[in-house]
From TrEMBL:
One BP annotation, GO: signal peptide processing
Keyword Transmembrane: yes
Regions that span the bilayer: 32-61, 160-178
Peptidase S26 domain mapped to chain residues: 39-109
An annotated Gene Ontology molecular function: serine-type endopeptidase activity
Name of the featured protein: Signal peptidase I
Spans annotated as Disordered: 1-20
InterPro entries xrefs: LexA/Signal_pep-like_sf, Peptidase_S26, Peptidase_S26B
Length: 204
């Protein structure tokens, strides 16, 4: 009798339950990471549009003059408004010539000349008002703040940190969009070795 013998595959098939579960787990991880990256990207786009369309920007609190309401290291979302719209109790940022801006609470307001407004400010942690009122035409009102987030922003502004994040994101995107068929083929070859195909033989 003459017959043909086919080579037997003694390894785990790529469509086995174990392989299917592994592929499903990898798929879930990919989707989670992609969703996180999408949310971060959407947040960046939203902040950019807000800055362009609504004069909304971010500021960092380096001191604790507004503690405990806004502690040092907080990141705040601010929007530019006419100084005449600022009310007692609002927390506003005032730009000062040749000095850093100051962000304190409005304790008094009165009309100035030439469309300007005179604001008296005080930090929540300070026992007295600021040394002198501020005569301004615009201010930036604090809309929301997040404690501790300024530290992360400062850390991310470091060139080494930025380069590392860029490398990680680029690697993830390359891995995610790499053709899956090639990944499966390489994984299968690594498990089972090269494909020997089938061989013929005769038996008597």
């Amino acid at each position: 009798m003459i017959g043909t013998l086919a080579a037997a595959d003694s390894g785990v098939r790529s469509d086995s339950p174990a392989s299917t579960a592994y592929g499903r787990r990898r798929g879930v991880v990919r989707e989670v990471l992609l969703n996180i990256a999408s949310v971060l990207g959407a947040a960046c786009i939203a902040l950019t549009l807000a800055a362009l369309l609504f004069n909304i920007t971010l500021i960092m609190f380096k001191t604790g003059s507004m503690s405990p309401t806004i502690p040092a290291g907080s990141l705040a979302l601010v929007r530019e408004i006419p100084a005449s719209e600022a009310k007692v109790g609002d927390v506003v940022t005032v730009d000062r010539p040749d000095q850093l801006p100051v962000t304190h609470r409005v304790v008094a307001t009165e009309p100035g000349v030439g469309g300007q407004t005179i604001l008296t400010l005080r930090g929540d942690a300070n026992p007295v008002d600021d040394p002198a009122p501020y005569t301004v035409s615009t201010v930036r009102i604090v809309m929301a703040s997040i404690p501790g987030l300024a530290v992360a922003v400062v850390a991310m502004s470091n060139p080494v940190a930025l380069g590392s994040v860029t490398l990680v994101v680029a690697s993830f995107i390359t891995w995610y969009f790499w053709p899956r068929s090639q990944r499966v083929e390489r994984t299968t070859r690594g498990r089972h070795g090269p494909d020997t195909g089938s061989f013929g033989g005769s038996v008597g």
